Amino acid sequence: MNTSDTSHRTYARVAGFTFLFYIVAGITSMALGSESQIRDLLLLLQSFSALVLGATLYGLTYKQGPILALLALTCRVAEAVQYGESAIYFAVSSLIFSLLLLRGRLIPTALAWLGVAASALLAAILPLQLAGILANMNWSDSVTWLVWLPMLVFELVFAFWLMFKGVADTKLLPPDPILT
């Protein structure tokens, strides 16, 4: 086993754990309400998690498209520092990373396609909402949960996949010809 394999396994495990932490911190901060100091700490930790995810996912995907991986990393950085519309940067980053995971066949194809579909849905809906074409979604609305549910499912499954299976060895698999 070479150091590249070890670092990819480490990146995958760190990313998997960070995804879970990111989800728990985000949901907990929403549940606490806006006046809680713990909420502020959780939002800070969630922002830091976005940076860790950007770096680790970049490390896993840059061989599939260095410029796209850098763009996705940049979107994660913007997500971490942008409170108002961070969800848009999140969706675009997730879409690009999912496409790169699919291109390199680094995770099961069905899981990567779920990430692409869930991210594309959010990347399309969130700007329309910002432009006033769609009504603002509140977390108390069932429509909001339906829109975000595919992403939640993807991220949870992906997190556990990364922690326990990691990513495929890119030396063994040629890139997906459809996406190259």
Count of alpha and pi helical runs:
6
Helix and strand succession? HHHHHH
- Give the helix/strand class: mainly alpha
**Biggest pleated-sheet summary:** none
Q: What proportion of the residues is helical, as a percent range?
A: over 70%
Count the beta strands.
0
Terminal residue distance: 28 Å
How many domain regions? 1
Beta-strand residue percentage: under 5%
Morphology: globular
Q: Compute the CA-based radius of gyration.
A: 16 Å
**Poorly predicted tracts of residues:** none
Overall pLDDT confidence? 88
Detailed description of the structure:
The chain is mainly alpha-helical. It has one domain. The protein has 6 helices and no strands. Helix 4 packs antiparallel against helix 5 and helix 5 runs antiparallel to helix 6. The longest helix has 30 residues. The radius of gyration is 16 Å and the shape is globular. The mean pLDDT is 88.
